[in-house]
Every structure is written in structure tokens, then in C-alpha cells.
Design brief:
With about 400 residues, the chain is an alpha/beta fold. Helices cover about 50% and strands about 15% of the residues. The strands form two sheets. The chain has a five-stranded parallel beta sheet, sandwiched between helices. Strands 6-7-8-10-9 form a five-stranded mixed beta sheet.
Length: about 400
């Protein structure tokens, strides 16, 4: 059995490569989204090489700090302007809730394919040309909880089939394993196999940036290989962009020069140490702020001074510490952009669907999601969430 539309998606990509069409990969700018984009890029490049065809392919990402998640208005306008003749646009780790933007880029002449693992919203699916998402209602594939990098690997297998070499497959699965762990996907069924295969020989990786980390870090200083992988993933947890809307992590994971990769790894380690200190300070600050509000069913706080790039890690800590749904956000002039983390018994997507009329955008997974809300709706949003979770708790 195959994921719904994965074969159609693969055939359309093959057609684009053989006809020298412009291919544009648009991935989210977290570890899973970037890894999914790198896996797709390398698989498509491998197919083009085997087909002896020149390849026109580019990658772009949203600036989470300034633009938020997914195929937002700013980046979709950027892509339309950059490619006035259109092209084949593939969204990775996003797209399933980008109704307006997908309609806009299709109207501008793009063929749009969505490869996403997020939960569709109750309004249905966007009007893309092809959608691959195991969580869409009519997909009978038995396993639903792949990382998006895992879906890209499925695409790689479909594209290359018997031509996928063992070494290339191992190389891709290293990124799939890292992304599956980073995105906290359930470690069961096929994900267990991906993680096992990806981590089996990762200390001998031929990918320069991973090779660099295993050169710099002493494995004996960690309790297990998994602990070391978590440390590496934490170094990858940043969303800095270059001037061309490309996430720097994409360049780092794609780096082919080992010496350059070694310098990048050292910089990532230093930056991560600084970031951890900042997260510790902000977490303590928010704990002090909410100590007088613990009677509420949720934690709902925001500030203009809280950087969105830190809020996922902070929300995770707070949700575990207080065993409550956490909604924290960075406040801008007219709107706020936030992160959601919930204990396992709740569903963030359903919670926000219950008051979606108050939100500009939202989406994600049951335990982890994001939102954008107009500031004049913040209080209504908070009260709606309290009401929703009171009902969930039988109050």
C-alpha cells in the first residue's frame, strides 16, 4: 500500500525534470521542514543525474521570526515575483492550511503540490493540484504519524525505486531520524525503523555537518548516542535566513566541504549555548508571571520582548512543568504570533478550530502547534480557550 497520491506526485516531478521545468521547494524553517526539503532536493537531484538531465530547482522558506509559519503572504508574493513564468511549487511541512496563498500562486501560473504531515482543518483541503498528507480523510495508509522528512523519504523511494543506492538511502535516513526525533513524532511503526536505520551508523556519516559534530563532540561525554543526537538537534534549532529567503540550516545540512562544515558546527555550538541561557532566563521570567494565575485551565501569556524563536522550547518546558496547555506569544503592533504545547490528553488543532473565527492562521499537530491572532482578539481568544479546556476537563 502507498500513501495517497505519492505516485502521482512522483510522476509529476519526473515530468518536470525531463521537461526542464522550474521546480521550487518551499519548506518550513524548523528542523523537520528543512530536513524534508533537503531530502526532497537530493532525491530529485539524484533522479535528474540518473536521467542525465539538467535540473532547475530552488528552495525557499518562511522567516518565522518576521513572517510566521508556512506559505505566508510575504513569501508567496516573493515567489510569484521571482518566477513570473510560474513553475512546479512543492510545499513541505506546510501548505495544508494555506488556502488563500495556494489559490493565489495557482492563479499566477504555478502547479502546486502539497507534501505535508500536519492535521488538515475542518474547512477541508486547499485547492492544490496534488496533495500528499496521510492525515487527509480518504488516505487509507495505515500509519499516519510520519515526520515530513519521513514523507520526503517516501517520495525519494517512489522517485528512485530500485535505483536508490544503499549509501544514498542511509544518508537520507540520517536526516529523517534526526527530524523525526526533533519533531517529537511518535516512535512506533515505521518511525521506529527510520530512527533505527538513521542512527545505526550516524557517527560514521558522510554528510559533512554530521561528520563535523561527531568529530567535535566526544561521545564518551554522553549517556547514549540518542543524548548526543538530541544535543546536535538543539544546535540545529534556529531559523536564521539569508537575503534570498533561504534558511541557513538548509545550506548547513547541504554543505559539501568538511572543513567549512566544521567551522559551522563550532559556531552552532556556541550559538546554542547562548540560546539555552536566554531560554532559561525567559522561562524563569514567565514562571514568575504566571504564579498568581495557576487557577486557570491554561497558561496564556505574551510579550513584545519574547522572541518567537525561543517560545517552542519554553512552551514545552512549561507544559511539562505545570501539566497544562500552554499558549505563549510574541506581540507585535497589530497582531501576535504564538506557539502551543499541550499535554498528551489534549489536541491543539481541535482547541483552536473551536474558535478559529478569532484567528488569522493556525495549524500544527495535536501536542504542538502555532497561531497568529489580531491583538484586538487576544482576550476573546483566551476566554474561548479557557471555555474549551474547562469543557474538556468536565467543568
Amino acid at each position: 500500500m502507498k500513501l495517497k497520491n505519492i505516485d502521482i506526485l512522483s510522476e509529476r516531478i519526473k515530468e518536470a525534470v525531463l521537461n526542464n521545468e522550474q521546480i521550487i521547494l518551499f519548506g518550513d524553517s524548523d528542523m523537520d521542514g528543512v530536513s524534508a526539503t533537503v531530502v526532497a532536493k537530493e532525491a530529485i537531484s539524484n533522479f535528474a543525474f540518473l536521467s542525465k538531465k539538467e535540473l532547475k530547482i530552488s528552495a525557499y522558506f518562511p522567516d518565522r521570526k518576521n513572517e510566521g509559519y508556512g506559505l505566508n503572504d510575504v513569501v508567496s508574493a516573493y515567489i510569484i515575483e521571482k518566477y513570473p513564468q510560474g513553475g512546479l511549487l512543492i510545499t513541505l511541512d506546510c501548505g495544508i492550511t494555506n488556502f488563500t496563498q495556494i489559490k493565489r500562486v495557482r492563479a499566477a501560473g504555478f502547479y502546486v503540490m502539497v507534501l505535508d504531515h500536519h492535521q488538515p482543518v475542518k474547512e477541508g483541503l486547499p485547492e492544490a493540484d496534488i496533495i500528499v498528507d496521510p492525515k487527509q480523510e480518504d488516505d487509507d495508509y495505515p500509519f499516519k504519524d510520519f515526520s515530513n522528512a519521513g514523507l520526503s523519504f517516501k517520495l525519494a523511494e517512489e522517485l528512485l525505486q530500485e535505483k536508490i543506492s544503499p549509501l544514498f538511502k542511509e544518508n537520507l535516513l540520517e536526516l529523517v531520524a534526526l527530524a523525526t526525533i526533533a519533531d517529537m513524532m511518535p516512535e512506533r511503526d515505521e518511525n521506529i525503523d527510520y530512527i533505527y536505520q538513521g542512527l545505526k551508523n550516524i557517527e560514521n556519516s558522510q554528510r559533512p555537518i554530521l561528520k563535523a559534530f561527531f568529530t567535535i563532540y566526544n561521545p564518551n561525554e554522553f549517556n547514549s548516542k540518542r543524548d548526543l543526537v538530541h544535543r546536535i538537534n538543539s544546535c540545529f534549532n534556529f531559523g536564521a535566513m539569508d537575503d534570498n529567503h533561504v534558511c541557513l540550516l538548509y545550506h548547513i545540512l547541504s554543505e559539501t566541504d568538511f572543513e567549512l562544515a566544521k567551522e559551522e558546527a563550532k559556531e552552532l555550538i556556541e550559538e546554542n549555548q547562548r540560546r539555552v541561557l536566554e531560554i532559561n532566563v525567559l522561562t524563569d521570567e514567565i514562571k514568575l508571571l504566571i504564579e498568581t494565575k495557576l487557577g486557570n485551565s491554561i497558561i496564556f501569556e505574551g510579550s513584545p520582548n519574547w522572541g518567537i524563536e525561543y517560545l517552542g522550547a519554553i512552551a514545552s518546558r512549561l507544559s511539562v512543568y505545570y501539566d497544562k496547555p500552554v499558549f505563549i506569544y510574541q506581540k507585535y503592533d497589530d497582531f501576535s504570533r504564538g506557539t502551543v504545547r499541550l499535554p498528551k490528553k489534549y489536541d491543539a488543532v481541535k482547541a483552536m478550530e473551536s474558535c478559529s473565527n478569532l484567528l488569522i492562521t493556525f495549524g500544527g499537530h495535536p501536542p504542538a502547534a502555532g497561531f497568529t491572532v489580531a491583538n484586538n482578539n487576544l482576550e476573546r481568544f483566551r476566554l474561548a480557550l479557557i471555555s474549551y479546556f474547562n469543557k474538556e476537563n468536565g467543568k
